[in-house]
Amino acid sequence: MSVEGITGGSSLYYSPDVMGKDEFLKLLTIQLKYQDPLQPMGNTEFLAQLAQFTSLEQLMNMNGNLQANFLMMQSLNNSSSANFIGKTLRASGNSVCLPAEGDTTLHYNLASTAKVTVKIYDENGNLVRTISPEAWQNAGDNEIVWDGKDSSGNRKMSGTYTFKVEALDADGNEISATTFIEGTVSGVKYANGLAIFLLGEIEVNYADILEVKGGD
Fold first, then answer.
1. Which residue, 174, 129, 124, is CA-closest to 152?
2. Domain locations in the chain?
3. Residues 59-67: contacts with CB within 8 Å, 24+ apart?
4. Per residue in 40-67, pLDDT tens?
5. Residue 123 backbone zone (phi > 0: left; psi -120 to 50: alpha; other: beta)
6. For the segment 109-142, what is each residue's pLDDT rounded down to a tens digit?
7. H or E stretch at 202
8. Strand ranges for 48-151 from DSSP E
9. Domain 85-213 belongs to what topology?
10. For the chain, what is the mean pLDDT?
């Protein structure tokens, strides 16, 4: 920011990093001191500059307060995150963790009764298995067990997979199907100041949590 009219036509510069009350008053004083006496600043222009700088300072103070409050809430959330270990979480998402042995369960919610097809994909997006239960699925929460085998009957490696649910009513119309993750919190890690909950190999962000159930 500069003030024109100083002897020799030079300008006075202030650091753009900080503009508080003291800096503003110094700037205004120098501007008044070096203004052209034959064309002094009018009252309207003077009041307009005061209003602009007052508004700017208020906005800067407000931003600082909001940032401080955000950091405090973030710190409180992170400090309480360890209490989630051992509890069961339900969260938005379509990931499922296949153990080295045994089955795994896929969870979804249907808007109404429907015929369902579940497609399971590996980490590269390749279709691994398609499961189409013969029975109609009721509205609300549903689950289906995957034995960990692909369409050829071969056991897949343990790891994280994704799944998609396609649902149709009796007339062949598409029914809304929402997938979700459910599992026990085994640990918590932090990234960019935010807590991430671990359900085995699956990572769940705080904002994606839908429900928390008590653990042992």
1. 129
2. 2-80, 85-213
3. 60/19
4. 555 566 666 666 666 666 666 666 666 6
5. alpha
6. 999 999 999 999 999 999 999 999 999 999 999 9
7. strand 202-205
8. 88-92, 95-98, 104-110, 115-121, 127-131, 140-146
9. Immunoglobulin-like (2.60.40)
10. 79
